[in-house]
Amino acid sequence: MTSKISADWIRLGVMLRGQASDEPVDLESLLISSLDQLRDDARLFWCIGSWLSVHHELVNTRRLGRMLDSLEQQRSALAGLLLEVALLQNPEAQNLIHLQGHCTELEEPQVLFSAVEKLHGYEESLGDQWLSEFQKWGFLHYQWTDKRDAVRPISWLIRYVREMRIRALLGAGQEAEILERSLRQPTTVTQANRELEYTYTATHSAAGRLIRRGLVQRVQEGREVYLRPDSEVRHWLETFPN
After folding, report:
1. Phi, psi torsion values for 3, nearest 5 degrees
2. Structural domain that includes position 72
3. What is the pLDDT tens value at each position of the chain, 242 positions in all?
4. CA 12/CA 52 separation, integer angstroms
């Protein structure tokens, strides 16, 4: 049976075995929740690193940075290493370098994958072959793996994954987040501000830009004013490419 985390990554274009999730994926939350599974699943680790190298511009750096700030040491170090793997494949992904500033390394080194950690004598036999890029985060491993051939391209994401389609069009920022939430259900600026943890002024400005572009409308119901996607925009986002 496919785990929820694997199903979500399959939805985002990672070629793993199993069925893709039918529900929209919260990318930043998925990255954080995946950390607990990565030391037990080497393929998932390498695939996520490669996904980030290819699609780093779809990551909301501000939001993910706040999430990384709250992690305990081991998960923080693992996130830093995951970003390192992506940068080995794409050194020009400057937003990933910025995100590494929110991560801290392990104080006591440990073998990266739990299955390998259990092998008797493994650490001693490869003691002079550890990768320095991994060691700086406190993990021991002797090679890194490029899985970009297991990551679907941006054209596929635009065609089949609505939440990534929005980010490709609007950028991975507040405007995309507001539009995505308004597609799920009508939301007020106050509600969007509370959920997204931006300042009210920033949320109000982002909503205004969406309205001026014709992507979202203000609809009053009683005393509340809700943000709703334009009906034609909703139809296009939900039915493209059919």
Report:
1. -70, 160
2. 4-150
3. 679 999 999 999 999 999 999 999 999 999 999 999 999 999 999 999 999 999 999 999 999 999 999 999 999 999 999 999 999 999 999 999 999 999 999 999 898 998 876 655 555 555 567 888 999 999 988 889 999 999 999 999 999 999 999 999 999 999 999 998 899 888 999 998 888 878 889 999 999 999 999 999 999 988 889 999 999 988 888 888 75
4. 11
Contacts for 102 with CB less than 8 Å, ≥ 6 apart: 64, 65, 68, 69, 76
Q: For residue 230, report the phi and psi dihedrals to the nearest 5 degrees.
A: -55, 140
Residue whose structure tokens are 């950390």? 35
User: Whats the size of the chain, residue-wise?
Assistant: 242
List the one residue out of 223, 229, 119, 105 whose CA is nearest residue 170: 229
List 228's β-bridge partners, or say none: 217
CA–CA gap between residue 43 and residue 21 (Å, rounded): 19
Please tell me whether residues 25 and 132 are part of one structural domain. Answer: yes
Residues 93 and 139 in one domain: yes
Give the helix/strand (H/E) hosting 216.
strand 216-221
The residue type found at 67 is M
In a domain? residue 205: yes
DSSP state of 5: H
Domains held by the chain: number: 2
Distance CA(133)–CA(126), nearest Å, equals 16
